Amino acid sequence: MKTNKKFFMKRLVKLNKKLTYWMVFLTIGLVMFFSMYSNVKPAKLDVEQFSIAKETIRSPITIEDKEQTEKKRNEVVSQVKPQYVMKQEYAQNRVDLISSIFDSAIDLQNELVKNSGATETSDSPVSVPSENERLEWLKKKLTNTVNNDLSETTLKALVNHTKTDLSIAKDAAVTAVNKVMTERISANEVENAKKKVEDQIRYISLPQDLKNATIELGRYAIIQNEFYDPKATEELKKQASENVEPVRILQGQIIVEEGQLIDQEIYRQLQLLGLLDNNNSHLPFIGLLLFVLILLASIFSYFRGYKRQDQNQQKELLIFGTILIISFIIMKGISLIPIDNVDLAIIFPAAMCSMLIKILLNDRLGFIGTVILAASGAIIFNSQTSGPFHLIISLYILFSGLSGLFFLTNQNHRTKIFQAGLFVALVNIVVIVAMLFIPNSKFSGIHYLFYVVMAIFSGVLSSVLTIGLLPFFEAGFGILSTMKLIELSNPNHPLLKKILTDAPGTYHHSVMVANLAEGACEAIGANGLLARVASYYHDIGKTKRPSFFIENQMNMSNPHDRLTPEQSRDIIIAHTTEGAEILKAHRMPKEIVDVALQHHGTSFLKFFYHKAKEMGKDVSENDFRYPGPKPQTKEIAVISIADSVEAAVRSMANPTMEKIEQLVKNIIKDKLNDGQLSDCDLTFKELTIIEKTLLETLHGIFHNRIEYPEIKNER
What are the protein's UniProt keywords (predicted)? Predict the structure, then answer.
């Protein structure tokens, strides 16, 4: 029954941790979503057609105006001239036609000469058939179309003249026709082309009737050779249409100015932009939800990818989420300040988030936080721009946050944090000036100065808020930050002054242990600074009865000589619990309280046990052991070893490196055999490194000194 109850409680605790884990994620996601909700919500305008605009309206997006684009394309297409093609072969065809007509007439003359027996070179008339017979012979040689198209007068002139005249007429006609037909002749230019042929033939030296016949043949040969090409015309129209750039309404473009009449075209553009749509569009909210999920995924991947104890994981996530939420609240508050023509986003302390996360957690989470803020800032501050994203501010936040990570050193004194803020301010100035210069912005000198002042204010405010919020995080989450450790290491701390005043031997012992423990912890990758500071306070319990501890017994008798072994045991053992109580009373960090309580673990007080045995008392070893618990962390285990080593070496009469080396080996071996290191995760390899590092440090302390000769006084 008890087993089931215990199992159930473990499951309940585990479920509660998981629920807390996811609740933190949900809270971060909700804060992100609702901080950007109003910035992506589509603006709805209550305007009517032909009314007067009450404010200047700009386009929130870039969108194609398809109606205007189509209208522009139609105008361009309508201006495309019809395309015509010239039939080159028509010129040769018409020349061949005229040549064949004259050749037929010349063939007739050759036939007449052959039949009459006259010589071919004779120009004298020969005895020929009658004119009608010659005319009929010629018509048979020609086609019906030609016979019908040509006049009787022209045909008679061809059959009544000699071969020489016909050859001259042929050459004149062919030349004129070829010259005119090689030029473009459209339907309405045919008559002009015929006139050109007629003019060229008119001045040829021929008998008048043959000249007239040649002119008629030339005019007959001229026809239209340029025709409409629908395919080429359509191709040209298509090309012209494709070359038309789409008409776009650009982001930030003024649609209507204040006091201007909202005519039909303006009203149509407002409808196209969705500014008059009364139906709420869900697309921006879906997009915002996906955007937030992407940002949450970056956080989840970090905490998912590293193996940690659940408690530490939840603590880190809660710290990270709290810093992120505070940054979002500041960011949203700045974005709601109603100042026109001034980009107040520049004063946002972007480096605060990265510096706080670096101090309290680590650099990688600081980088993730900076990227999330930069991405979200592009939306939250979009009221200063006409689009959905303010990319200049996004880059500004990114560079500012990264500079905070870069310039903040591990020595996180308050002065160092403020110094990092000044460096961030310098980076802010460079970034914002670059962003203003690149687009060739035309601002006045006062305007530039104002932006520079805001950039400086952002850097300084980042450091001030970091310093101011750090104590709240340390107190609220019980965080032992680097800066807190440095403050606790200050010799002027009241508890350290108490140790120095009340137990100076213990103070010196603690400083020596701190030197040994810090080097050993750093060698194995543990927190060396924590080990050093915790070592300062680990024996604070000895301040209650300092004289009962050997390091404080100078020039005095040992009070344990007057006490029973049991009394001595109780006083010695009590310094761990009493030290823890003192540290708790001063609200010291839990890590340091644990060191005071655990640095002796359950180790055995051999001296007083053997003293009791020698006195004949019936005692057991368990009666002379510290109550524990055993060291739970690497740092406490190293401090435990260093504490024993320092005390043992200090008690050696003539320490040599060989003796010290053997002593360190024996102490580590005894702690292992006694099970004092069983609850921490030290490996044997790390123990070897610890041993080597302790010896190196001790060698530096107990190095051989030059023995100077004694100078005798000769007097």
Answer: Membrane, Transmembrane, Transmembrane helix
653 CB burial (10 A radius; 0-12, 13-18, 19+) = exposed
Q: Give the span between the Cα atoms of 80 and 233, in whole angstroms.
A: 8
What lies within 8 Å, CB to CB, of 712 at 6+ separation is none
The alpha carbon of 430 is separated from its chain's Cα centroid by a whole number of angstroms, namely: 20
d(CA 312, CA 377): 29
Residue 120: predicted pLDDT: 46
What is the C-alpha to C-alpha distance for residues 308 and 325, in angstroms, rounded to an integer? Answer: 23
**Residues 357/473, Cβ–Cβ less than 8 Å:** no
Nearest residue to 312 via CA among 365, 370, 368, 372: 365
- Both structure tokens of 639: 């401090």
From residue 55, alpha-carbon distances to 44, 104, 169, 701 in Å are 13, 90, 86, 80
In angstroms, rounded to a whole number, what is the distance separating the alpha carbons of residues 224 and 84? 12
8 Å CB contact between 469 and 356:
yes
Cα 2 off chain centre by: 55
112: which 2 tokens?
């007449």
Q: What is the rounded distance in angstroms from the CA atom of residue 700 to the CA atom of residue 696?
A: 6
Instruction: Report, as ranges of residue numbers, the positions in the chain whose pLDDT lies below 50.
Output: 2, 118-120, 122, 124-126, 307-310, 704-715
- Measure Cα distances from 262 to 56, 58, 460, 581 in Å: 11, 13, 48, 79
Q: Kindly provide the b/e burial profile for residues 362-373, where b requires at least 16 CB atoms within 10 angstroms of the residue's own CB.
A: eeebbbbbbbbb
How many Å separate Cα 44 from the centre of its chain? 31
User: What backbone torsions phi and psi does residue 465 show, to the nearest 5 degrees?
Assistant: -65, -35
Q: Both tokens of residue 676?
A: 């004092």
Using CA atoms, how far apart are residues 588 and 471, in angstroms rounded to an integer? 13
pLDDT at position 712 is 47
What b-and-e string marks burial along 51-89, b requiring 16 or more CB atoms within 10 Å of the CB? eebeeebbbbeebebeebeeebbeeeeeebeeeeebeee
Give the DSSP letter of residue 625: B
Listed in sequence order, the residues at least 6 apart from 261 whose beta carbon sits closer than 8 Å to its beta carbon are 50, 51, 52, 53
Q: Return the structure tokens found at 57.
A: 């309206």
**Strand 248-249, strand 63-64: pairing:** antiparallel
Q: How far apart are CA 173 and CA 569, in angstroms?
A: 145
181, 187, 192, 195 alpha-carbon torsion, rounded to 10°: 60
Please classify residue 325 by burial: count the beta carbons closer than 10 Å to its beta carbon, then call 0-12 exposed, 13-18 middle and 19+ buried.
Answer: middle
Residue 103, SS3? helix
- Comparing CA positions, the residue from 544, 526, 535, 497 lying closest to residue 643 is 535
Distance CA 212, CA 230 (A): 40
pLDDT digits (tens, 9 = 90+) for 207-230: 888 889 889 998 988 999 888 889
Residue 57 contacts residue 45 (beta carbons within 8 Å): yes
What does the alpha-carbon distance between residue 686 and residue 424 come to, in Å, rounded to a whole number?
40
Q: Helix H segments across 651-702?
A: 657-673, 684-701
Burial class of 311 by CB neighbour count within 10 A (0 to 12, 13 to 18, 19+):
exposed
Secondary structure letter of residue 274 according to DSSP: T
Residue 190 near residue 224, CB atoms below 8 Å: yes
Alpha-carbon radius of gyration of the chain: 54
For 191-207, give the DSSP string.
Answer: HHHHHHHHHHHHTS-S-
pLDDT score at 659:
87
- CA 243 – CA 259 distance, rounded (Å): 37
Other Cβ atoms closer than 10 A to 106: 20
Widest CA span in the chain: 182
CB 463, CB 416: distance < 8 Å: no
